[in-house]
Amino acid sequence: MRRLDGTIEAVTRTGQLKTAAAHRALVIPGHMLAVLRVAIEAFHTDADSGDVRPEARVILGLRVADQGGQLAFRQAFAKAAAAEGLSSTDLGFRVSPHLLRKSIATDIAWHQGIHDTVRRRFMGHRAADDVYGRIYTLDHPELAPMVDVAAAIDAMVDDTIGSLLVPTTKRVQAAGSWSHRRRMAQAQAVVDAVGWTDEGGERDDPLCDTVRVASELRIAVTSARRWLRDGTLPTITATVRGRQRRVVLLSAVWALRDRLANRTLLPDLAIDLGVRYHELYQLARRLDVPMELHPTSRQIEITGETAQVLRAEHERVTGLHARSMKLAAAARELGLAVSTVGLMAKRGDLTLDAETDSSGARFITRASVTRVSRARSDGPTHLRIDTGIVPLADVIRFTGRSRTELLDLVRAGVLEQVPGRGRCQLTAESLRAWIAGSA
């Protein structure tokens, strides 16, 4: 506004209009009224109570609530004009809001049936330049002539573009205004409901930007941006708001959503089965089942069919370990060498299990190990010394003497050891003499 001293000050509100003739009653065309109703519902109506804030600015401030300037509007207007081929480069002259005002004034001026006085008053000018027009001519008490102008403008819109609610790919943004940022979801929903948003692509399969992808998949916008960049979602390049951007069809987004819904993370399955993660991973590697990295967590994910295969294999291996043990474990259980247990399994004294686990080791049934262990623990009821040579182990079980005691008797000359590098054996003759002497 211009102060009394001639200086100009930028203000967001003023207590007076540009001229005295600017005080007038306006009749809003129906198409313009539809736009205002959408804006009021989106930005100035409480979603819960339905109350409207009558003190709010119709055109909301982008950065500060209820305070707006011209810079953002002019920049947006220039971009929109350039996108529609209406820039100074295209036309040879600059398209401005004032030029649009001139355009509507021209259309009204050449429209048949509208009195010159009505045209002037509708545009905010005096009815005439003489005293009669400046002082004595008031607005029509019933505003009937203004209604005719509004009807004429509605007819012009119907004949040219059909509606002022022209779909746009630009979504609702709040810039730095935190009060409006909290209302973005409601405002976008209202705009979408009236068809003011153009998704791009076909009506049944619109194009989605990162914000729409994040909303559909319930992920962060940064994750959606990465998925479009790394090829997780098949993208196409389209012109959105005058710029080349990566977008994706809604059908592709839904396909990924369905695929992720039927997937299971391998760590989660390991917890469910009660096994360690690396064991389940090695099992999946051995079975050569398909595995992929989850786009968000970067953890291994598997399909429902693969999860069933791993569950069945885990149940089989669990049953195997329940009824059998590895050959090395059987050797420890029996106190024998692994090679001895292998020979016993080959002769049929121990029963080999037909199955194995991921290690590929041979398994011995627990029943056969128990049978052989019980037979070995019972031992012979008498000491057989009629063969001429008796193993030291049999002497230990029969007499109850320790190995050390018997070897001390050998060193004392009481018992005679059979020479050789094999297991310790005693002669039957020295045993008979020792037993007779002990008796």
Q: How are the SSEs ordered, and which strands pair?
A:
Elements (H helix, E strand, L loop, with lengths): L29 H14 L27 H13 L4 H4 L5 H13 L6 H7 L8 H6 L7 H17 L17 H4 L2 H10 L13 E2 L1 H8 L3 H10 L5 E5 L2 E7 H12 L1 E3 H8 L3 H11 L4 E2 L6 E4 H20 E3 H8 L3 H10 L15 E3 H13 L10 E3 H8 L3 H10 L12 E3 H11 L1
Antiparallel strand pairs: 1-3, 2-3, 4-6, 5-6, 7-8, 9-10
Helix pairs in contact: 1-9, 10-11, 13-14, 16-17
- Spatial shape: rod-shaped
What's the total helix number? 21
Provide the low-confidence segments as ranges: none
User: Largest sheet, if any?
Assistant: 3 strands, antiparallel
Please indicate the count of domains: 5
Strand adjacency order, main sheet: 1-3-2
What Rg, in angstroms, do the CA atoms define? 47 Å
Regarding quaternary structure, how should these chains be classified? single chain
Q: What percentage of amino acids are in beta strands?
A: 5-15%
Structural class: mainly alpha
Give a brief description.
By secondary structure, this protein is mainly alpha-helical. It has 21 helices and ten strands.
